[in-house]
Amino acid sequence: MGILVLGMHRSGTSALASVLDALGLDVGARDGLMRGDVGNPDGYFEVQSVAELDERILAAYGGRWDIPPLLAPGWANEVGARQFAAQAREVFDRSFAGSHFVLKDPRMSLLMPMWRQALLDRVAVVLIVRDPAEVAWSLALRDGMAPLTGLGLWAAYNRALLSDLDGLPVHVCHYRDLVERPIEVVSDIARSLSAWGELDETDPETGAQRVRPDLRRDTHPGADPILAAPPASVTELATYLGTLDGRHDEFHATVPAPGWWEEPLLNERRVFVQHYEAALAERDATVAALLADNAALRAQTDELRGEVSAAIGAVRELEATRAIRVARAFGRGPTKP
Fold first, then answer.
1. What does pLDDT average to over the chain?
2. Whole-model pTM?
3. Per-residue pLDDT at 188
């Protein structure tokens, strides 16, 4: 089998994948991993080609990482999804050599039925959950996202996971606990993975040393009134997720009902982004057409310059010939022998 690290963006999936890397599991070839940046200085421990494929799949269904697509029940059994599953398997096979792998990409949280098909359901999952207000605040600071939209995204990701992980071995942990009690949390995870045959004996402290409390940022969402008191549906979901901590040899969960506002909010965002991207595409097409026209005009100008230059040369040659003839006529030029 292998391990999937799942969770909403900005929830600590990178920190968790780093821990599993330190425990000796395969996170993929280093030169194929997503590079670190300001958001995650230590790196993402995420295969770049997997993230890119997931973005293409989300786009094919009218979404992207911050706009969950509208997926009909059973969508993963459709022909298009099966083709994506085959591509996912190819990307996976190129990225991992052994069976004890760690595959991490938050986007997978929205695409689990397809990935379960691609990996033949031979996976276990470590799911990490973070306080929804902290996630929304982090997205607001990093991406300028409205706090309520961040809460809606957090809920969409976690509701999808509760629904789509049914029957798999799953260990649930919380980002706060990982940061505040790393040895205890890593030890719990290691015991679950060992029970599932995914991890040989190891020292949990090796993994715990990877946890950097100083990178737990964006933890002051109380400055925003919506995040200080999130909607009831988000609070209910967060409370329910808190009851799922630990090991589940066969995961089953009840999905709390979404709030009335969640789907309309994300639909409105989807429509706005689609119009915005269409406007950008139209602008880019206009710019491309203008650039093409400009290039054509430049080519015509260069051609005319060449013709003018040739004409000037011809005139000068003609003038020189006439000067010689005039000089001969008056006996001042060279004569034939």
1. 90
2. 0.83
3. 97
Q: What is the third-level CATH fold of 3-259? A: Rossmann fold (3.40.50)
Domain boundaries, the chain: 3-259
Q: What is the pLDDT of residues 200-247, one digit of tens each?
A: 878 889 998 999 877 666 666 667 889 999 999 999 999 999 999 999
Asked if the model's pLDDT at residue 336 lies above 60, the reply is no
Q: From CA 219, how far away is CA 135, in angstroms rounded?
A: 9
Task: Give the pLDDT mean for 278-306.
Answer: 89
Residue with tokens 């799953």: 170
